[in-house]
Amino acid sequence: MRIETCYFCSKPAYPSKGITFVRNDAKEFRFCSSKCHKNFKMKRQPRKLKWTKASRAHKGKEMLVDSTVQFSARRNVPVRYNRDLVDRTLHAMERVAEIRARRERVFYKNRMAGKEARELAEDRKLVAENEHLLPRHLRSGEQAVAADGEKTPAAPYTHKTKIFGEGEKRRLRSRVDGGVEEVAGGDSMDMD
């Protein structure tokens, strides 16, 4: 039996699965699922829906021109059975699948080349724009990013520990500009 492709999303529509719609002019439309059939009836463009093969090809995420695609093209002319021809065809099918997988891997690698550098640049830009939201000890004054792309180690955030009996009367008051000042006489309250 022949495995046909879905008219809408280009996924394989296996025999006895999916829906076949025949128009008045005798044109057949095969759909892999009711989802594709409903979208077709709503006259939606497959290119505008992200999950279809047409959309992926339109955006350059899928290989368009490839000789391995022609191998699986539909041929309507019947061929007389020939054992050697069938044997060669089966070997060729395995080989074509192998070649297609390799080409798709190379296509993906070429498409993703430079992605990490672009994402790193976007992240740096985002941090630079929203630096005021970072905690004070992580801002650019104390943790600078070098031009070569490596992060310099951040100065560890030091917190003074109290020793029992020492400095019990001391209080720290945080200022608006980010500094900290020491206030003597911790027990007394500030009255304005």
UniProtKB/TrEMBL annotation:
Parts of the chain that traverse the membrane: none
Family matches, as CDD domains: Ribosomal_L24e_L24
Keyword list, A-Z: Ribosome biogenesis
Superkingdom of the source species: Eukaryota
Keyword Ribonucleoprotein (UniProt): no
An annotated Gene Ontology molecular function: structural constituent of ribosome
Every TRASH domain range: 6-44
SMART domains given in the database record: TRASH
A GO biological process held by the record: assembly of large subunit precursor of preribosome
Extent of Low complexity compositional bias: 181-192
Ranges annotated as biased composition (Basic and acidic residues): 163-178
GO cellular component: nucleolus; preribosome, large subunit precursor
Matches recorded under InterPro entries: L24e/L24_sf, Ribosomal_eL24, Ribosomal_eL24-rel_N, TRASH_dom
SUPFAM superfamilies: Glucocorticoid receptor-like (DNA-binding domain) (SSF57716)
Chain intervals for the UniProt region annotation (Disordered): 144-192
PANTHER family, sorted: 60S RIBOSOMAL PROTEIN L24 (PTHR10792), RIBOSOME BIOGENESIS PROTEIN RLP24-RELATED (PTHR10792:SF8)
Assigned protein family: Belongs to the eukaryotic ribosomal protein eL24 family.
Official protein name in the record: Ribosome biogenesis protein RLP24
